[in-house]
Amino acid sequence: MGAAVRAAAADAVVTFLWVLCASALGASTAAVTSYLGVQEGAGGHYSLLVTASLLSVLLFTFDLLCGALGGASFNPTDFAASYAAGLDSPSLFSVALRFPAQAAGAVGGALAISELMPAQYKHTLAGPSLKVDPHTGALAEGVLTFVITLAVLWVIVKGPRNAILKTLLLSVSIVSLILAGAEYTGPSMNPANVSILPFLSFCSLCVCLLQFNVHG
Question: Pfam families annotated for this entry (predicted)?
Fold first, then answer.
């Protein structure tokens, strides 16, 4: 039981940090391209290169962090896929603790980045949203999640042993699939990522209703 609780706590911390850092990728890309003098809209390829580079650094850092924390995870999809592929065999009690811990960490990270993000970069916090009909969106998410899970498992199990090359392959795969899904639902493929925006919207609604009741 103690090991399961520690794993859940590690998942919560890592997911909090992941959402906090990954949500800042858009702002970081904008800051870097602005520093390099790349005009917005004219240097799309440069922006993609910067994003992929930053994501590679982020993935490499979190790979080390997750390893140091005993195999912590920040993506419920990857966690479930590893279990289904036989790469991990956690107990049912551990799974029941770790999934909610990851969701709680994601919500905490989203709340933190929404408060810490400078005003000029607030627009970069836009997350996944349905841009097509629900059936098409569900199909797109299913296909994209299947492909990214397959790609991640292949890179981890059959890919190169070099950690840097492995991280580069993962980042290129993720950026490519985010671009492929941009016209459907945007950067999703992670249940924790999808759940945080509705939660924040719900919190905003509660605050507005509370203010209305107090002042009304």
Answer: MIP
